[in-house]
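As described in the Methods, two query proteins were run sequentially through the folding procedure within a single session, without resetting any intermediate state between them. The first query and its resulting structure tokens are shown here.
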Amino acid sequence: MGLNSTPSSERIHIGFFGVRNAGKSSLVNRITNQDVSVVSDVKGTTTDAVKKSMELLPLGAVEIIDTPGIDDEGELGEKRVQSANKILNMCDIAVLVSEAQRELNTAENELIAIFKKRNIPYLIALNKSDLSKKINNADNSVIVSAKDNTGIEELKEAISKALGTAKKEIKLVGDFIVENDVVILVTPIDESAPKGRMILPQQQAIRDIIDSNAICVVIQPEQLEETLNKIKPALVITDSQVFKKVMNIVPESIPLTSFSILLARYKGFLDTAVNGAFKIDDLKDGAKILISEGCTHHRQCEDIGTVKLPKWLEAYTVKEFNFEFSSGHGFPEDLSEYDFILHCGGCMLGDKEMLYRMNLANEQGIPFSNYGTVIAYINGILERSIEITKDRR
């Protein structure tokens, strides 16, 4: 992600699905005005999901995803189908690409049933309208021809209409501050901090504070006491790893929370994370805990997910647990073997994918929480850290 680009997690994800050779890739190339996907008359040319970030007015920043055919065959084909299904977890809207000259087939109707089951808005793009005068209209459909470049603008308009403005009413920080408020961000620079840049939640918080016409002061933990002697902020937001240290410095009269807790509220799973944190005390010795991160990065000796959190959890409970780890878009669908799911803040995952993971855990009765909420809980400051979010969740 470039410094000036909208992160993937904040883009609207539009997935193109269908059987092999329906013209998905050709249609994606027309919509993006680029040769994003390889096009061929040979079935199954698209073997892996292909993504393209762009601006689509009036929606704004979107990510277009071209997926393999849902009727792919063989062992490799089955894996490609599974990959296409996983893409659904992150989609804000799905476009089923079919052929205008025929009725929808069984595989396509099954896909529509999945869209409906997962409450994913969808459209049907009836492609190859240039090949036949007889068009088999379907509900919720747009007639297009990737070859003749017809119906493309109508499809874009239909996508925009189906999603509405797609703007979040909720803000990361702006809901808690007013113009000219001072907000202090406590951002430790240690071995795990990326060189030469801020991590994504910090970038987003800074931008949201600026957009709110408030004043943003960014410091390291060692500078907090001196900073508070000079200014009285309306809010202090800290990295979860230094929660305890910051709590002991910031007076009770000043609201205090973390990037992770604000992100959980922003993505819509704070209540679940808080309720999950309370379940830590119920974990038995030898319990199996899945710690999941939405991004992949080089593990370091003091990595928060694989090193610090396991130590803190065992120290707090005075128990020993079995830990497993997942990262990136890999997340098990069957969670029955786990007693607790501990997730990162999900800054690199879209809202749909994060909520999908949360719902999987809820449906299977597995407590689900995130790093910052759990860290606040085991340090005895959860109530204080979520105080500002009450009545605003």
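Immediately afterward, the second query was submitted; its sequence and tokens are:
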Amino acid sequence: MTVPTIPLNTGYRIPQLGLGTYKMLDDDAEQAVAYALEIGYRHIDTAQMYGNEAAVGRGIAASGVPREEIFITTKLDNPNHEPEVARRSFAESLEKLGTDYVDLFLIHWPLPDQYGGDYLSTWKTLEEFAADGRARSIGVSNFQQHHLETIIEGSETVPAVDQIELHPYFQNQVVAEFCRENGIAVEAWAPLVRGIVADEASVASIAEQHNCTTAQAVLAWHLAKGHIIFPKSVHRQRLEENLAAAQIQLTVDQVEQISSLDRGELGRTGMHPDTMERVKGSIGDK
């Protein structure tokens, strides 16, 4: 099964649909990664924060899929922003993953109240990893427009990716549009909004028209919008269903129907990057 790829501003291409490993326990991560690669996934997303990089590495090794065919993303944990700590933790990530390079390395959060609000020094450390080839592309996660502007104006490298919360209820339009205008690919975390979007009548109707699940309909919406997604699952059937979403082509009207579900900031499920707190009255605040 073929998954479309998207060009990054570094010249590399990233599979538009992959496997996320957030909160996966070691055994689950190892087995899910191995099976996902066996059935055709070629993009695996993990993070230092998840504590499962070694298990992901074992799953990759067990799959038998050649390393050069796999796109691996990991992320810098919040306590590791100091340049020397970032260097050490990145080397540890490579060792745990069993590889001498990653395809994408991200700063996980901008952390406005830590390190004196200085994420630019951390970014310049990531530039070192790109320069020596240990990170083919570098990017950020949960960065707002003003964070991105600071990096673009203060460094030599435009981030290849911004991985942000983005789904039908919270389409993060200001950040997403800024990324598009500046050649930054948009990755969407929480693409299925914890599954609650499945209760929407319009989503159920679209799923019925395509003889697919509501989750597949939402994933197909993301793909139609050009987002990079990596839904998480440890269940084989769900892994297969998520991968099959890449074959579903929504109509323009169906894409617009799902896009109309946007609730703005009240649709957030996670923390706001500027405050590291939930937005009052939002989905995540309930």
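The chain has a mean pLDDT of 97. We note this only descriptively and draw no conclusion about the first query from it.
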